[in-house]
Amino acid sequence: MKLRINGNSIRLRVLRREVACLIDSGLVEETIYLGPGDQSAFTYTLAIDSGLAETQLRYKPPKLMILLPKEAAATWAGTDQVGVYAAVEIEGRGTLDLIVEKDFACLDLSDADNKDTFPNPEIGAVC
Fold this sequence. Notes:
The chain is mainly beta. The chain contains two helices and eight strands. It has one domain. Strands 1-2-8-7 form a four-stranded mixed sheet. Strands 3-4-6-5 form a four-stranded mixed sheet.
């Protein structure tokens, strides 16, 4: 799972096996260490919550969690829908865009770089 933070948006790009894991177990999680000790860990999580009506963000240091409603996750995973998009209000800070997308194969990279990605819908397109 790839995490991209840009301005007021958080984007997760999810590989095919990660989407399958999310649907099967309800959770995909990555941890990165920003220093030598355990206290330097930062964890980001994508999870399904059957009790939700809309996508939510939870942040409790050192963990960032994006929660998808069960129906939205199933539709996204089971169709050619590219992503799940939401905007959440951060009290006193404005809106934060949450973007969860299937990770498509890059058109200009080798097959090794595209391992486990979704087929790119732009393959064969003429510029």
